[in-house]
Amino acid sequence: HVQLVESGGGSVQAGGSLRLSCEASAYTDEVYCMAWFRQAPGKEREGVASIESEGAINYRDSVKGRFIISKDASKNTLYLQMTSLMPENSAMYYCALGWCSRDLMVRLPASALDGGYWGQGTQVTVS
Questions:
Q1: Distance between CA atoms of 49 and 51, rounded to whole angstroms?
Q2: Sign of the alpha-carbon dihedral angle for 46, 48, 22, 42
Q3: What distance in Å separates the CA atoms of residue 21 and residue 5, rounded to the nearest whole number?
Q4: According to the per-residue pLDDT averaged within each range, which of 68-77, 87-96, 107-116 is highest?
């Protein structure tokens, strides 16, 4: 039973930066993946970035070069460093943890970690 708690959201001006954090109560001993998703009002949830337990990373094309996903295993924490933020990045951001899949690491589908654990979300607003 894993609990995930996101933090670090807020309101920033275009071009600004935010660092989101997701603290997990525990990680599995098996291979696992974690990912950031987001959902804006009136839009479907979409994958932002994923990271495999051994370090492999995948990003949505629109955030490549601007967002960095990372983790600190010693703190059971996942991060998303976001720079050069744009208004279209405004959304509720969620972290999730679950079984890895090749599809997650390639396509970042919104449903990839539906069977896993999810946090409550943290709001990001860019103006």
A1: 7
A2: negative
A3: 8
A4: 87-96
Tokens representing 27 are: 């990680």
- The pLDDT assigned to 30 comes to 65
Contact 10, 18 (CB under 8 A): yes
Tokens of 112: 């990839």
For 96, residues 6+ apart whose C-beta sits below 8 A from its C-beta are 4, 34, 35, 36, 37, 113, 116, 117, 118, 119
Q: Output the DSSP codes for 92-125.
A: EEEEEEE---HHHHHH--TTTTTTSEE---EEEE
The mean predicted confidence, pLDDT, of the chain is 93
What is the arithmetic mean of pLDDT over 99-125? Answer: 91
Cβ neighbours of residue 64 under 8 Å, at least 6 residues apart? Answer: none
User: What is the C-alpha end-to-end distance of the chain, expressed in Å?
Assistant: 37
108 contacts: CB under 8 Å, gap ≥ 6 = 35, 46, 47, 48, 49, 50, 58, 59, 60
Whether the Cβ atoms of residue 71 and residue 78 lie closer than 8 Å to each other: yes
Encode pLDDT of 33-42 as tens digits.
Answer: 999 999 999 9
